[in-house]
Design a protein that fits this description.
The chain is built from 16 helices and eleven strands. By secondary structure, the protein is of the alpha/beta class. α2 runs parallel beside α3, α7 runs parallel beside α8 and α9 packs across α16. Bound molecules: flavin mononucleotide.
Length: 328
């Protein structure tokens, strides 16, 4: 048995599951592990660092992987696009910003372009531009995101996407989520949170341990960590993390944080070096409840697939033949 969707054909993969390009977390080892298990792993190009990217592509070796960038940040260092296109990734994912300036260069090669969206207007722009796949990201997602919820947002994007495969993201962490996403019309899923604490993830040891104890209710969206990291994020997106002492202190008092910024940035930098998760962020989403063990990425993916197959079969058994037709 297997689950085959147009996404499998698009990327020539066995399972319709993509590893999210999580900045500082999705390196070459986890991307390659997910790809070897039959999905597609994306390295998290994040805010861009040429040496880091080269190292992580080398780590992935010959395994076919993809890569993702934060679009507004790539705009500030566009040369990184050439660097990764030279590696001929299977897919390049752009999120958070205007992808149009990069369209032609990506189209010139064989790399497929995935764009992650948080609004229907962004989805329509993707359709007009003819991107290869659209990620519909719900607010449940770990990391940066918008305000729409996955359950109603995914089918709404499917409706505007026409023939372009839609990939659901945000709160999908096991086979139940994958089955639900397929039922919504998605061609597959993009997952971050469920891989955050995997063996191959580059998340710190304390962050992985904190994730194992976390619940979706312990997470929140805010911009405190962007301010603390000195990242100039445009309006419209903020960061879902676990709550900790730092968010408790500042998320309701952004003005206060701005007034004390230099001091707080210094405190934050020390905490990050010490892997102190009371102050440094644990970036996971509402699916935190489903992350309960540190295990190989391959095991997470295989379990997701077999659970989804089981769910889809059971669900189809709920449909009874009805000779009388629908009563209206
Ligand atoms: C630790 C972490 C870092 C992330 N970093 C990025 C990133 O650099 N670029 C990006 O496009 N998305 C990033 N995301 C969001 C993912 O692309 C994806 O939308 C999200 O993980 C899906 O929801 P889930 O976390 O519930 O699986 C990140 C997510 C997490 C959990």
């Amino acid at each position: 048995m297997s689950i085959r969707t147009p996404l499998c054909d698009l990327f020539d993969i066995e399972h319709p599951v993509l590893l999210a390009p999580m900045a500082d977390v999705s390196g070459g080892a986890i991307a390659a592990a997910v790809s070897r298990a039959g999905g597609l792993g994306l390295i998290g190009g994040g805010y861009g660092d040429a040496d880091w990217l080269a190292l992580e592509f080398d780590t992935a070796g010959e395994t076919r992987i993809g890569v993702g960038f934060i679009t507004w940040s790539l705009t500030q260092q566009p040369h990184l696009l050439d660097l990764v296109l030279d590696r001929a990734p299977a897919a390049l994912m752009l999120s958070f910003g205007d992808f149009q300036p990069f369209l032609r260069k990506i189209r010139d090669g064989k790399t497929k372009l995935i764009v992650q969206v948080q609004t229907l207007d962004q989805a329509r722009e993707c359709v007009d531009a003819g991107v290869d796949a659209i990620v519909a990201q719900g607010t449940e997602a770990g990391g940066h995101g918008g305000t729409r919820s996955t359950l109603p947002f995914v089918p709404a994007v499917v409706d505007v996407a026409k023939d372009i495969p839609v990939i659901a993201a945000g709160g999908i962490a096991d086979g139940r989520g994958l089955a639900a996403a397929l039922a919504l019309g998605a061609a597959g899923v993009l997952c971050g949170t469920c891989f955050f604490a995997s063996d191959e993830s580059l998340a710190s040891e304390n962050a992985k341990q904190a994730a194992l104890c976390g619940s979706g209710e312990d997470t929140q969206r805010s911009s405190v960590f962007d301010l603390a990291r000195g990242l100039d994020w445009p309006d419209g997106w903020n960061l879902r993390t676990m709550r900790n002492a730092f968010t408790n202190q500042w998320s309701e008092n952004i003005g206060g944080l701005r007034q004390n910024l230099a001091e707080e940035q210094a405190r934050f930098a020390i905490a990050r070096d010490l892997d102190d998760t009371d102050i440094a962020p644990v970036i996971i989403g509402e699916a935190a409840d489903l992350v309960r063990a540190i295990e190989p990425a391959q095991d997470i993916l295989y379990r997701m697939i077999s659970q989804a197959e089981d769910r889809l079969q059971r669900t189809s058994r709920l449909v009874e033949p009805n000779n009388k037709g629908l009563r209206r």
